[in-house]
Write a structure and sequence with these properties.
about 375 residues; 6-stranded mixed beta sheet
């Protein structure tokens, strides 16, 4: 088994707590992403798994064995860094072959050649095998670094933003190739990124971190559709989720979200979810935050429903088949996503309707979801 388990892991740099009591499990043969903004502790977590950073507290297991005291070379892992870390005096071929020649297991020249050529083919660098790193572009050097890990076929791949230096087209290609490669090799992969598109498109499951604290672990669907708090909801999604401060007014079976712009009633199933998780609300208005993703507004030129509310188009951004529309309402500016064929213009008054089944509701103090 090549699962990776973290039990109550901490990392302290002096008085700074970079990773705070993180517990999670990356399953055998799983593509697992650590996602979060810069400085959230994801790279420190990865480096502790690799053995490049000492653990301040807790345990890390690879398979069923605690590896806290093991050297990196004894963990049967291969790591790809954001920086290339290539040998400048060796050719591309020699760089990729190096871990096969330097490891405990001895490979024949024919086996090494076969593995290197196979990895080079996947990464589209076969034509560069006789070149030196200084003769390559930054993106080509990063592909060599990935190839050097691929040839080892370890039980666990650890990747620290390995394709961040590549151009957009090649990043798109490499996302598919890395995911396919992981499936073919049957290896466990722990992948660090700040790019939500990489995480959402590649991972089986995602762990989101912020300020050293693990926020949520789940499938891409769960992370996107069932965020546990306002941070996760706002971090995942492009454009990000809109947040509107409002009050929840409860009167018998009538539950309404009320702001300066709107009065929206909650569907019965949402009321049931709220009560199940939180218990019946106290009397009087509750300060809450309504969360709505840009694609979950309906925008029209005329009022189509009693719960529609009005706004003014601040700017439009056509993006192929879609259009991003910024709409100003009292105390807020919302980002909406609609068809580029929608007949609206800057400065125009429009009507907005929220898709109620897609609403999210957060506690304004704790930022936790109500359902």
């Amino acid at each position: 088994m090549a699962k990776v388990t973290l039990k109550n892991v901490w990392k302290r740099y002096g008085k700074v707590e970079a990773v705070i009591d993180v517990s999670l499990e990356c399953k055998d043969k799983e593509f697992f992403c650590l996602l979060g903004p810069s400085g959230c502790g994801k790279s420190s977590t990865l480096r502790m798994i690799a053995g490049l950073e000492e653990i301040s507290e807790g345990e890390i297991l690879i398979g069923d064995h605690v590896v806290n005291e093991l050297e990196p070379k004894d963990r049967d892992i291969a790591m790809v860094f954001e920086t290339y870390a290539l040998y400048p005096h060796k050719t591309v071929y020699a760089n990729m072959a190096f871990p096969l020649r330097a490891g405990k297991r001895k490979y024949s020249d024919s086996e090494i050649k076969e593995r290197v050529q196979k990895a080079a083919g996947i990464l589209e660098i076969s034509q560069f095998l006789e070149r030196y790193p200084k003769q390559l572009s930054g993106g080509q050097r990063q592909r060599v670094a990935i190839g050097r890990a691929i040839v080892r076929e370890p039980r666990v791949f650890l990747m620290d933003e390995p394709i961040s230096h590549l151009d957009a087209k090649l990043r798109t290609h490499m996302r598919g190739e890395l995911k396919h490669l992981q499936r073919v090799l049957g290896s466990t992969m722990v992948y660090v990124t700040h790019d939500q598109l990489e995480a959402m498109s590649m991972a089986d499951r995602i762990a989101i971190m912020d300020l050293g604290v693990l926020q949520q672990v789940g499938t891409p669907y769960e992370i996107f559709n069932q965020p546990v708090n306002q941070f996760v909801a706002g971090f995942v999604g492009d454009p990000p989720m809109n947040f509107i401060d409002c009050n929840l007014e409860v009167s018998g079976d009538s539950w309404q979200l009320v702001s300066d712009s709107f009065r929206i009633s909650l569907p019965l199933d949402m009321i049931a979810k709220f009560n199940k998780k939180n218990g019946a609300p106290s009397s009087g208005p509750m300060e809450v935050v309504l969360g709505v993703r840009p694609e979950n507004f309906i925008i029209t030129n005329e009022k189509s429903d009693e719960e529609c509310f009005q706004g003014e188009v601040y700017v439009t951004e056509p993006l192929g088949e879609d259009m991003i529309v910024d709409v100003t309402i009292p105390k807020n500016r919302l980002k909406l996503k609609t068809s580029v064929d929608t007949d609206i213009a800057m400065g125009q008054q429009v009507w907005l309707e929220v898709k109620k089944k897609k609403m999210h509701l957060f506690n304004r103090k704790t930022r936790e979801t109500y359902f």
